[in-house]
Amino acid sequence: MSTLEIKDLHVTVETEDGPKEILKGVNLTIRDGETHAIMGPNGSGKSTLAYSIAGHPKYTVTSGTVTLDGADVLAMTVDERARAGLFLAMQYPVEVPGVSVANFLRTAKTAIDGEAPKLRTWAKDVTAAMEQVKMDPAFAQRNVNEGFSGGEKKRHEIV
Amino acid sequence: MTVADNVRSALEVDEVSSHLHPMGSFDPEDHGVPTGREEVWRFTPLRRLRGLHKDAPFVGGTFRTDVSAPEGVVVDRIEDGSGRGSSGLVPTDRISARAWLAATSTLSVRIPTEATPADPVYVTVTGTGVEGASAGHVVVTAEPHSRATVVFRFQGSATLADNVELVVGDGAHLTVVSIDDWADDAVHVGHRHANVGRDATFRHVDISFGGDVVRQDTTAEYSGPGGSVEMLGLYFADAGQHIEHRLFVDHTAPNTKSNVTYKGALQGEGAHTVWIGNVLIRKVAEGIDTYEENRNLVLTDGCQADSVPNLEIETGEILGAGHASATGRFDDEQLFYLRSRGVPEDEARRLVVHGFFHDLIRRIAVPELEEQLVATVEQELQGVL
């Protein structure tokens, strides 16, 4: 059982006129198996909430807590949060020139498991995962998100 | 004046009208002692050149040259000066002219007509001390329709000025790789000039990691139509290092091609890189295609990257001409993206830098070097990541 608990979260961003508060005390508890949809007009802070939990450097948490099964998420680095199980599906996935999809997935998988995936089964696993989301396995040789269409970028995220 | 003379002057075949490249001369006294205010010297730390630009005597003997050549390649030491100037190189600055005069012998590497040696030629220059300057002269001749790779590696400590001439015969294919892997106290000011024949291909791969001051002038011209020049560069400047590359492609014949891509990374206080790209498209050079590009990745505070692309166009009847330059630091969005997928920060930085150099390393297309280069980049990164 996992529980993500957000309590009284205040977040600011730097603007030309100094820090601007976007989140003014958000409370939300998400338990295992639950799906929450956060709705609101443009600029109401939906993305800010997601990015703050993931640890994007642009956002500053001024007060409040975020815990995952009691562990302090805000004290973790970005990659520690990801390895703890928080995954942010990005609206606009970033291009990383010169880094192949295969290399990126393998590095990420190594970081999450703490050991390099077995070469013999790895290629097969990636191909299977890509087929599952109907992606051409040839993508593994291309650079991360470079020249991908919007949909391709999103599907790569899922792989 | 005959009709032919009129045509010659109209086409500006003989005159160099490039303002960045003064007329050459073999006499050092025709080149003034640089003060640092000249356009071609303003980025160079003259005080660290150990007098190479003034009158520091060339005592010689402070470096050793080892050559390993596959069968079919002719390597000679020429003492009588013959073969010098066969590329059309005429010194355009004092250091080049002084080195020309001081170098007592010429290393000649000749790839005979239609020869295609299986392995690269390796020329390893090992410096044995910085006390006293040395001068060197090399002539590489790729005879018509030959195909070869020549790798120069510079290591150890030295104060070296050299002229390297590269003659690429009609239809020949020559790849020259230059690796400046000096010790931290070396000073190297080099001039390299390529003469590219009809339908010939010249590839120059320029890699700079070591040395205190490294300044390389690399120039190319064409002796016939249809020639192709590719210049690739990869450099990594650490704290206090000065690495300067000055490129000049002189499109002296029609339907020729050139592509220049240099990529560098800088780290540490006082790391300084300079990249000056220049392409001259002469009136005669119709139907040419050229592109030059420089990218710099600044890894820490305290670095400086100067980048100046130039393009001088005397005719508009061309296929294409362009240039680009960009200098930036780590992209926070890229790092965040990789880290949010669980990749630790140092690993993410390493991935981004590897990615930055990856395309270039792949284009070098000398399999013997690829792995070694990736390893060297990795080693350079260990200090900062």
What's the number of structural domains of chain A? 2
Number of domains of chain B: 2
CATH-derived architecture of the largest domain in chain A: 3-Layer(aba) Sandwich
Largest sheet of chain A: 4 strands, antiparallel
Quick check: average pLDDT of chain A?
84
Distance between the termini of chain B: 67 Å
Q: Give the largest interface.
A: A-B, 28 and 24 residues
Quaternary structure classification: heterodimer
H/E topology pattern of chain B:
HEEHEEEEEEEEEEEEEEEEHHH
Low-confidence stretches of chain B: none
**End-to-end distance of chain A, in Å?**
24 Å
Spatial sequence of strands, sheet with the most strands of chain A: 2-1-3-4
Largest sheet of chain B: 9 strands, mixed
| C-alpha geometry of chain A | globular
Descriptive overview:
The complex is a heterodimer of chains A (159) and B (385). Chain A is α+β, with helices and mostly antiparallel strands. Helices cover 33% and strands 29% of the residues of chain A. In chain A, the strands form two sheets. Chain A has a four-stranded antiparallel β-sheet. Chain A has a two-stranded antiparallel sheet with strand order 5-6. In chain A, a hairpin with a 2-residue loop joins strand 1 and strand 2. The model of chain A has no long low-confidence stretch (mean pLDDT 84). With 385 residues, chain B is an alpha/beta fold. Chain B folds into two domains: 3-329, no CATH class; 331-385, no CATH class. Chain B has helices at 3-11, 94-102, 332-339, 345-364, 367-382, and strands at residues 63-68, 74-78, 106-111, 121-128, 134-142, 147-157, 159-168, 173-180, 187-196, 201-208, 213-222, 228-237, 242-251, 257-266, 272-281, 289-298, 304-313, 320-329. Classes of the chains: A alpha+beta (159), B alpha/beta (385). Chains A and B meet through helix 2, strand 5 and helix 3 of A and helix 3 and helix 4 of B.
